[in-house]
Amino acid sequence: MESVSTLKNKTTIKELFSDFKQLTKVGLSVSVVFTSVTGYLLGAEEINSTIILLLAIGGYLMVGASNAFNQVIEKDIDAVMQRTKNRPLPSGRMSTTTALIIATVFTIAGIAILYSINAKCALFGAISIFLYTSAYTPLKAVTPLAVFVGAIPGAIPFMLGWVAATGKFGVEAGFLFMIQFFWQFPHFWAIGWLQYEEYKKAGLHMLPMDKKDKGAVAQIIFYTCVMIMMSVAPVLKVTGAFYIHPITAVIVFLLGTLMLYYAFILYKTEKNTDARKLMLASVFYITIVPIIYVVDKFLH
What was the pLDDT predicted at 5? Predict the structure, then answer.
């Protein structure tokens, strides 16, 4: 039979690992790594598995650092909200010092690994961490424009992959950035709609004009339309080496209209259940579209 102390140690290790995952938001970090890798596959003439591995580790560390710093800064705000009060810091399971050490180590290691790919990757990684922690996080408590600032670091991963593959930031990387940049507005505003009461209680401004109304959904619809235009633009051969074929453009357009459909439904009903559908449709979109781009490249 295992001793009580052995069982306690096992539980403690499991809890520590769980807290570590929550602090660095493993799920989000993995999705960012996935987007970066698809960006790399789009830009690469020859696939280099070492670069993919470095990009994946560097990207994970970069997002993990941003999330850890974010939770240190928002410890008191997280304590107020139902959704976040059980995170490691507000619950008291982890000290601020520990979280800061993890965040700092992740930052240094992440930027160093990205630098080993090329200097531009490291630069964009550093910009991403800086903007997320020093601009987006504090601005959330001040103005709804925080979402615009947060969309910049949030749009870097797709582009980062291209820069890792080519060493260049040109029109192609710019378009990949724009696609993910405009995607974030319907995505985050759908979350802002769902969590409106919680955010309001915590003093965070996450909806345009700070109102949960048709005006907010009108902006969601507008940005979804811009996102769709950006996503299909490569078919017009205006995006340098990043080109998609007409059939791919049609598929991407249809996936965009799925998001648009749920946005219009939300405009009509203003119900949380429809905001959730829009949010899930946006996650589906940003997962599937990069895969479709990669498939398009390798099939032709």
Answer: 52
Question: Both tokens of residue 119?
Answer: 């200097």
Cα separation of 47 and 231, whole Å? Answer: 24
Q: At what angle do helices 49-73 and 26-43 cross, to 10 degrees?
A: 140
Average pLDDT of every residue of the chain: 92
- Here the tokens at position 262 are 């749920």
Q: Which two tokens stand for residue 185?
A: 């507005």
The closest alpha carbon to 78, from 25, 117, 32, belongs to: 25
DSSP string covering the chain, please? ---HHHHHHHHHHHHHHHHHHHHHTHHHHHHHHHHHHHHHHHH-SS--HHHHHHHHHHHHHHHHHHHHHHHHHTHHHHHHSTTTTTSTTTTTSS-HHHHHHHHHHHHHHHHHHHHHH-HHHHHHHHHHHHHIIIIIHHHTTT-TTHHHHHHHHHTHHHHHHHHHHHS--SHHHHHHHHHHHHHHHHHHHHHHHHTHHHHHHHT---SGGG--SHHHHHHHHHHHHHHHHHHHGGGGT-STT----HHHHHHHHHHHHHHHHHHHHHHHH--HHHHHHHHHHHHHHHHHHHHHHHHHHHH-
Q: What's the confidence (pLDDT) of residue 3?
A: 52
Flag whether the pTM goes above 0.85: yes
Identity of the residue numbered 262: Y
